[in-house]
Every structure is written in structure tokens, then in C-alpha cells.
Specification:
This protein is an alpha/beta fold and 663 residues long. It folds into 3 domains: 43-132 and 262-372, P-loop containing nucleotide triphosphate hydrolases (Rossmann fold, 3-Layer(aba) Sandwich), CATH 3.40.50; 141-254, no CATH class; 379-612, 3-Layer(aba) Sandwich (Rossmann fold). Helix content is 42%, strand content 11%. A 7-stranded parallel beta sheet has the order 3-4-2-5-6-1-7. Strands 10-16-15-13-14 form a 5-stranded parallel beta sheet. The longest helix has 43 residues, at 600-642.
Length: 663
Amino acid sequence: AGEGEAGEGEGGERPVVLVEPYERRAAGPYPQDALRVNPVRFTPMQVEALRAAMSAGLSLVVGPPGTGKTDTAVQAVSNLLHAYPRQRTLVITHSNQALNDVFEKLLLRDVDERHLLRLGHGEELLATERDFSRRGRVNYMLGRRLELLARVEALAKSLDVPADVGYTCETAGYFFKATVAPRWEAFEAEARRAGDEEGAVERHFPFSDFFADTPSPLFAPAASGAAHLDAARGAWRHVVALFEELEECRAFELLRSSYDRGNYLLTKHAKVVAMTCTHAAIKRKDLVSLAFQYDNLVMEEAAQIMEVEAFIPMVLQNPDTATGKSRLKRVLLIGDHHQLPPVVKNLAFQKYSRLDQSLFARLVRLGVPATQLDFQGRARPAIANLYRWRYTSLGDLPGVLAPDGPHALAVPGFRHDFQLVHVADPQGVGESTPLPHYVQNLAEAEFVVATYMYMRLTGIPASRISIITTYNGQRDLLSDVVDRRCGSDARYGPPRAIATTDKFQGQQNDYILLSLVRTRAVGHLRDVRRLVVSLSRARLGLYVFCDAPLFCGCTELRPAFSQLEARPTKLQLLTAERAPPARRLDAPVDDGAVTEVEDLVSMGKLVARMHSEAEAADAADAGAGRAAAAAAAAAEGGDERARTVGGRRIGTESVPDAPPALD
């Protein structure tokens, strides 16, 4: 209809556009044949980014915190794999953590794991027991070959074929061409002749015995003939996929050494190859010498990759010998230039050579068209406001606005969902630098760890709490304090992560405790990009510990700290509340139930009191349990005595015989 409105054809007739609905093909009869559907609902701008990624050339995607950059990158890789199955895609990230995030989400998409390969270190942090290194993938393909050949033997047995067709991939291929495919063609001819005849498909289908182990009957009794034919075609697709996968295993059967198999996997077999930019730089010579080729490049965290590092993944291959041109067709850069830039420790290179400017930031600054994702689904709207001002348009997804969702519930034990906590050192020391650039603040570390202990005592799981800071020295100090205060008590345990802001970029958690350390100067948090990363890691609760007057007086930080200092700078707690959360965030709070923590000493006393109460409650529960066990044992003993008759032992305790009666 749209084309018809654009103009009229020859003779004044309007062109007609024929639109037919898409009919999904029937999947195979086994659960692994079912199509894995992406549960993520993409926003219009994410769809636009995915459309741009499918086009040849360069595509830029700017993704503010929580807008689904990784989901967009993963879906782009999946789309490229399905739209261009003969092309290969190279995935590059700045860190191993980001690479693992991409890989874990790829495993949830409709991407067969035999097409995935991960190079470099950090794979042990993947949340899966499967090995995606070169050696692991070779072993997987060899094991998969044996499984598929066993299935071929089962198929031959169901068809009464006596030959040893499952010995090698080659004999299996001959079996498919000589026996399996002709029988399917004969079945199709019979199905066409039978038409809608009832039971014809089930009667003529040649592989019924092979599919006898399906979870549900291949041909539903009440289904129509067309439905039976559709099910038969789905089963045939399962058979064809089995032999196609065996054909891919043939090279691993012919190559005899692990080295040759690994190189073949890297250069020919894997459709999606993932590595960090550092690994690409280290292994470039080896990859080029192996004639490594790829067609698409997807670079996540592009704003954190130095300009020279960004060019290296583009030149990991020599020009095509047939055309003399590079095979690279598409480059997708995804990042956020408002977050942390590349790390360059040498100040001369950083400031005067501008090596801290990424290629992504340069292209955005020069006006290259970019797609900006505009809806975040990570943080509460109030927490997102702390960094929303940095972006031209950043809305909230319905998930974070839902009145019955987790974002609508308050943080257990806290009056506010985010708060700036002023920390005054009782000793008047503040920050210290035992080594150059190794800044620590003991009072702040103790306050943060005491707050963590309080959260654990209220019942918040340790896995939902992370502690981040802006300096390596403070991170090490926090780890030491956590080990000393919490390490020996199973009631607390360590938080999910204790990390610097720079290392925590790209990660998130429900509750974040942020330590800003400095008391004499603002330090490198004056870089607003580091502030944006620090404030955007929390989903449900954010508590910032710092010297409040120092940071609130910094002009660069005013848009965020003006919102933080609008609330009290003394930590306000509801000590009677316990997890899981039940109070709504907008529910009124009785001021009499609020405990305002004056300083570090008060926080320590509060945690010590709650710890003693928890120990007393545990002791009482243990005493009650012992008393109940003793009562149960006593009751059981009494029953056994009652079951003892005439001195004969029926239970575990015997009763003496009664004296004989006198005549």
C-alpha cells in the first residue's frame, strides 16, 4: 500500500503490493531443535542500531549506562550469522569481563555453540562449564562427531541397513546420499499422490522408528494431514542438520594433530571469533601468517580502546588473493564516550599526544552519524537522574517504572534509595598516601565495611552488594578490612566484588557502596566521565561515602552532587526492617523509626549491638532446637519402654521381668 501511494504506474494503474504472512517452519521433534527466541524487547533506537549494523560500512552506536549496549552487540552478531551464514564475524572488547558478558549472552541466542571460539585469557571466569578455547572447541567437535556417528548407526538400524555406515564422516555422507535422501524423495512423492488422505503421512514416513524416542508422538493423533506433513518436514530438517554437522566434523577427522585441528578451527570453521584488543595486538603476526579471514567486525567498549588499538583488529588479515581487497565489509563500534576513556598512565602521552582519545570518541566528535540508545532499564529513575543530565535524551524503560516491580520497593533497612554520607575521621587523619598515587582513607573504609555488615544483618544477600572506589590503595584497604571484620564469620562473608571504578565499568549490581577516598583534593574524580561510571553501577541502592563539603564544592561535579546533598548527609537507617523488601519506595516513613548515624563510632556501636542480638537469637534458636531434640528423644525412649513386654526386648531398652505370681 505504501508503494502504491508513492505514484502510479503506466496507464494510470496503481501498482499492487502482495503481502503474505510469514509462516514459521516446524522445528524438529526434540527440545534442542526448538528455535531459541530472544526474550529482550528492543527499543526503536536499538532496532535502528541493528538495522545500521546490517548495512555495509561503518556504524556507530552510542549507549549510555543501562541502555543495552551488550544486548545490541550480541543481537547484531546473531543477525549477521543468520543473514550471512558464510561470513565470519570478529568480536573485540577492551576487557575480559566484557568479552565474557558478550559470550554468555551469545550462548542464549539462536547461535550453535560449535560456531563460537574465544581466544585469550579470562575464559575461566565464564559462567559455564563448557570450554570455548581452541583446545576445548577441538575436543568438543571430536566428541560431537562420535555422538553424531552413533545417531547415524541408529538411523541405519531403523532403516534395516546392515552396512557399517557410522564408521567415519565420509561413510555417513555416502549413506545419506545413497539411502536417506532417496527414501525422503520417495516419501514426498507418495505424500503428493495421497493428498489429504487420512493417515497417509504417518503410514509412508520412512523414519518413524528412528524418531520413536521423541518426548511426544511425532504425529499427533488428532492433528490434520497438513499438520502431519509439517511434522514430517521438521523431522527431516533434524536429519539433514545431523548430516550437515557431520560434514563439518570431517576435517577434524582427517587432520591428525591438535595443532592443525586448532588452526583449522580458527581460520575456517568458527563463524564467531572473540578476543580482547590486547590479544589481537599480541597475536596479529600469527593470525596473519595463518591466513585468518573475517567479514564483519563488532567492537564493544569501543570508547575505552585507544585509537591505535582500534585499528589493529581491522588489519588482522591480508587482502583477498582473488580480488586484492580486504574481506572486511562491516565495522560496528559500540561504546559511550561520556564514560571512561582509554587508560594512559604517562601524562605526557595522555595530555599532549591525546592518546587518551579513542577512535570512537574522535569519530563522534567529528560528526560521523551515530545511533544513540535512549532508554535505560538498569537503575531507579531517581538514581538515573544523577547522571541523566550528561546525555541529551535518556528515558526510562517500563520495567523500571512498573509499580509492582523491584524498582518500586525500598531498600531494606534504609530510609533512602541513594544518599551522600559525610565521613569525618575521628582521628583527624583523612586520606593518606603510603606510596605515590596509592591513596587510602581508613575511616572511610571502616564506615563502608560497617555499612556492608549492617546490610548483611538486615538479610540482604552478599551477592547483591558490591563495593567500589576510585583508588587502588583504597580497594586493597577495603579488602583487608572486609577480611578482618567479616572473613571469620559466616554471617557476613565477602561482597560480590571489591573493585575500582575503572575495573567495574561494564558491570552492575543491586546495591553499590562507593568510597571516594579524598579529603584534601577532589583528585581524578574531577573527570566527569569517571563520575558517570561511578554513579551508574547501581540498580536499586547507591550510598556514596566521602568528605561531603569537598566534593559538593567542586564545580564540575555540581549537577550530580546538588541532587545528593539535597538529602541528609548523615546515614538514615530503619533498623527494624529486614529483607526481603516489603515497603514501597513512595510509602511514608515514621520519623520516630529512623536512626540517624552521627559518625563512624556510632555506626560501629550500632553494628556491634545488632551483631550481639543476632548471636543471642542464634543461641536461643540452637537451645530451643536442642530442647526439642531432647524431648523427642525422651518421648521415643518412653514409647520403647511401653513396647517392651515380659522382659523381651522390643525397642532399644529392656524392662526387667515381673516376679512370678504365687499360687
